[in-house]
UniProtKB/TrEMBL annotation:
Keywords: ATP-binding, Nucleotide-binding. This is ATP-binding protein. SUPFAM superfamilies: ATPase domain of HSP90 chaperone/DNA topoisomerase II/histidine kinase. The lineage of its organism: Bacteria, Pseudomonadati, Pseudomonadota, Gammaproteobacteria, Moraxellales. Coiled coil: none annotated.
Length: 658
């Protein structure tokens, strides 16, 4: 085999003209940007673009000139004769400013604008200036030609790219938006390196001239599980109309890829571009993975963090717009947050929504300024309370109470939608209510009401509305039904199979009695098509310990369901859970068996039945731990007063009097 290999002749891989032409595809501005980058990469401090127009309109030639090192004659073949490699790969680590490309493809973008391209270049050769040209034609794109080398003592170092025989696409560069697009593309780079200059048709590109606001954010800590490289975010707001994009940049601000957030960012009235800067993106680009960001999950995670930061940025910016008018409300003593000095993150969000909404209400209501102070204060208090306690009702206040015109209603509704805060406030309200419930339930089960708190008439009724405490993935399906109703409920979900099964007979327990369940929950999002997960909860009054009798009862329930002929061959997973304040010694041992998950006392893989027992302390602790993880960001503080208030409002008729 080895001898045969020695006799093989090598085959050289050559890029075809068809393949090379695919490298020329780009918008006019993108193609021009590549040539500008090449000028800066050639160590030029200034790059100039000149558009030479025809007498009758349209462009005659495009000239991109730099004053860098030029292209040494001996390197022409390496620079222009190879694709997929570049001198920049060798020098990028030691170069004095970041290099844009490294695959030798950028030069072909010139052919996107015109059929003929000339690189007229001057370099220093043994202390003297030498000049020559490299020319190419789109029809023979796989072949470049060089002129004779000439000595030119009066010349200046650099390269002039002259594009002629232009395509119609090139005329797009005459549009006013070209300057703004170039400004946005080079904004961070020119800001990072202020000694570099870009001139477009005689006018200096100045990023700051069209910037209205700039803010930097450090996302390094949030991204430390993804990359060890720093990750920075720069948000630039423009005073010109722009398309919203997030540029994925190298650490020094060279844009490598663009991501369009589309409708993910609500920032009405703002024009902005975001720049995510990290050497991590450069590494992905070098490996050819950055363009496949949809397949690279780490990039998606960083973008998600950036989007979240950008959303928060514009929430603050929108709130800042109304600082002056808020001060007027404070001076008039009608501001509902007048005396509040410290805010949780949720309370701050509520305040920001109020400021935005109230300022616009004042604008839309023609007689607001003439309204009595007391009425203004009441109106503001009403809006603030609605935002805090029931964000969904704000729209009703706008429609019915303020009696605004339809157009004004629509504008305010859109404003609320753009803040994206009502959902945050609603979520915060849910978390706060659940934390208060856990605190209140703990008091009912273990406090002085324990002895008079009954399982059937009180605990059961409360838990019907708070079934989330057992498992967030399940929702209440049935309550206080005989066990045969469990079957009936399940079989009805099987479509045509329901007609084949008789559910009129009760499910019989081994001792001849019929069974009854307390709470039955079904999984909201079923994991498998045509299969169903159910959770059946057996409640015991606080004073009743879980013992062998309780275990026997719950196991009989489980086995009755599994062995009933109407459930044979039905795809369902059943979990039975018995709960009380305490487990006796026997139940505790059963709930801690070797090679069994904690709390599991019975498991039958063939019948798909699992039986668990838990104490209320364990259930409450698990639920509280999940909520506290979220609450670290919401900063809601649970107090006895708040928990008792919630219980009274939500479950007053089921709470025993002391």
């Amino acid at each position: 085999m080895n001898n045969k290999i020695k006799n093989f002749k090598p085959l050289k891989i050559v890029a075809t003209a068809g393949h090379i032409k695919t490298l020329t595809e780009a918008s006019a501005t993108k193609a021009l940007s590549e040539l500008i980058w090449n000028g800066f990469d050639a160590s030029s401090k200034t790059v100039s673009v000149t558009l030479n127009s025809k007498i009758l309109g349209g462009l005659e030639t495009i000239v991109v000139e730099d004053y860098g090192d030029g292209i040494p004659f001996k390197d022409a073949k390496a620079y222009f004769g190879e694709i997929g490699d570049s001198w920049k790969k060798i020098k990028k680590e030691t170069y004095h400013h970041p290099l844009h490309g490294q695959n030798g493809k950028g030069r072909f973008k010139a052919f996107c604008l015109g059929a003929d391209v000339e690189w007229h270049t001057t370099f220093v050769d043994q202390n003297s200036y030498s000049t020559y040209s490299i020319i190419g034609n789109h029809n023979k794109i796989e072949e470049f030609k060089t002129s004779e080398l000439e000595t030119n003592s009066a010349a200046q170092k650099g390269t002039k790219v002259i594009i002629s025989n232009l395509y119609k696409k090139a005329d797009e560069l005459l549009k006013e938006k070209t300057r703004s697009e170039l400004t946005k593309s080079f904004a961070v780079f020119l800001t990072e390196f202020p000694y570099l200059k870009l001139n477009f048709n005689g006018i200096k590109i100045d990023p700051k001239s069209v910037q209205s606001f700039t803010k930097d954010y450090d996302l390094t800590e949030d991204c430390n599980s993804i990359t060890e490289h720093p990750v920075k975010l720069t948000i630039i707001e423009w005073n010109i109309e722009t398309e919203r994009v997030i540029n994925l940049c190298s650490a020094k601000g060279i844009s490598l890829e663009e991501y369009e957030p589309k409708h993910r960012i609500k920032a009405k009235g703002f024009n902005f571009t975001a720049y995510l800067k990290s050497e991590y993106f450069q590494e992905l680009e070098n490996a050819g993975a950055l363009a496949l960001r949809e397949l690279e999950p780490t990039v998606g995670k960083i973008i998600d963090l950036a989007v979240s930061t950008i959303q928060e940025h514009f929430r603050r910016r929108m709130a800042e717009k109304y600082t002056g008018i808020v001060q007027e409300w404070k001076d008039e003593n009608i501001y509902p947050y007048q005396d509040k000095t410290t805010f949780t993150s949720v309370e701050k969000a509520e305040q920001e929504v109020f400021d935005i909404l109230a300022a616009n209400v004042q604008t839309f209501l023609p007689n607001f300024e003439k309204t009595e102070k007391t009425s203004k204060k009441f109106m503001f208090k009403l809006i603030a309370q609605a935002i805090s306690e029931n964000p969904e009702s704000v729209q009703k206040i706008i429609t019915e109470v303020l009696d605004l015109k339809k157009d004004d209603q629509d504008k305010l509704a859109e404003l609320l939608e753009n803040t994206e805060l009502s959902s945050i406030i609603s979520s915060a309200s849910i978390v706060a209510n659940r934390l208060n419930f856990l605190d209140g339930l703990d008091d009912l089960l273990f406090g002085e009401r324990k002895k008079i708190f009954t399982e059937r008439d009180q605990l059961h009724k409360i838990l019907e509305k708070e079934a989330w405490i057992f498992d967030e993935q399940f929702a209440l399906s049935l309550s206080e039904e005989r066990l045969e109703k469990v079957l009936e409920k399940h079989i009805s979900k099987l479509g045509n199979r329901a007609d084949e099964v008789n559910v009129t007979d009760p499910v019989m327990l081994p001792d001849g009695r019929t069974g009854r369940i307390d709470l039955m929950l079904n999984k909201v999002d079923q994991p498998r098509d045509g299969e169903f997960d159910y959770l059946v909860v057996e409640l015991k009054r606080p004073s009743k310990k879980i013992d062998s009798d309780v275990l026997s009862q719950i196991e009989k329930y489980a086995i009755a369901v599994a062995e009933d002929e109407r459930f044979l061959n039905v795809k369902a997973k059943w979990t039975f859970l018995a709960i009380s304040n305490e487990l006796d010694a026997y139940a505790t041992r059963k709930a801690n068996q070797r090679n069994m998950p904690k709390s599991v006392v019975f498991q039958d893989g063939e019948l798909n039945i699992t039986v668990l027992v838990k104490s209320w302390a364990e259930v409450i602790a698990n639920a509280r731990a999940k909520l506290q993880f979220i609450n670290r960001h919401l900063q809601y503080e649970v107090t006895q007063e708040n928990s008792q208030k919630y219980l009274k409002e939500a479950h007053e008729k089921f709470i025993p009097k002391i």
